[in-house]
Amino acid sequence: MTAQSSPPTSLSIYQPGASIVSVDEINSLAHNFHAKYNRHNIDYHAEARAILAKVSDPAIRHALISLQSLHREFDRRQQRHSVCDENGGLARVHHGLDAYNTSVTNLASRLGTSPTPESVCAALLCCQMFISIETMLGNYAAGMRHFIYGLRIMHQYRARPTVNLDGQLEPCNNVPLPALDCFLIKLFASGRPVSKPMPIQRTSDANPGLFDVSLQEQSRAELAALSSQVLQFLDQVSHMQTSRQVNDMEVSKAQILARLESWDWMYTQSLKTLMVVDNMPVGSKLKFGSIFTLLLHGVLKVVVSLAMSSSPADLDRVDTEFQNLTNISNVATEARRAAAVRVI
């Protein structure tokens, strides 16, 4: 299907010549990161500032145009009583997808051989916007590919201090790199918030459906608390400077991985069961919620496992986790498309 009207020359308020970033620009971009940003107490202003500070970079600028164009159309379509604007909507979608492809092409050419620190930083900033776009569109599989690629970049270029095989602290890259892992955790952890944990004990006369909802929300609440702990841990790793801090962080890492393992033992099998219930539509909110919770757990596990590690072999050791994330994100994409509802 083709658009009936040509897209405007520029749908973006972000121009490469701007030297001063306004509060309104920061707030606007922070809103665009999440489909339901105003419903959650999540702060994306640091990410917005970092992107707007480098808007003169062509890859970043085109990714930004794409995010803004597609988010504007997403917002319009969520307004049930909005005036039909099919031609304008198609123009925004086409313009957004063209800008997306231009950004990806630009990054591919720059990262192919001897990438500069600026290109590496641009790639991670663009990954944030690509993930936001794909999540908004319900394509979690594509979003996860961007995340895994970005996480490999963070590891390769030492975005945080690491510990070598001799137990010695190695400083992070001289050029500060965006924390893509923190961004994704915030984005995913805010997707299906719950106000408080709910009891999950099943009684003989309990309604199985209510039990399933209760179990899912309980698992989600515990994972939200773990997400906050992981974000705090990553921030502390970023500021490691002494051997004492290294020891403390190694203890914290082991404790978090143990909690993730405990969560896995308690909830994973039950949630996987909800994913395959025969009489439940693949796109139901309960089934999708189970898939999405498992996806967040997998993200937390791989991020913590790679924290502080410096060897390329560490990436090989989490290949199984990467494959698990890929598989779950594929299922999440299928369920989201089947549901035709927005749950994040």
From TrEMBL:
Tree of life domain: Eukaryota
UniProt keyword terms in alphabetical order: DNA-binding, Metal-binding, Nucleus, Transcription, Transcription regulation, Zinc
Protein name: Transcription factor domain-containing protein
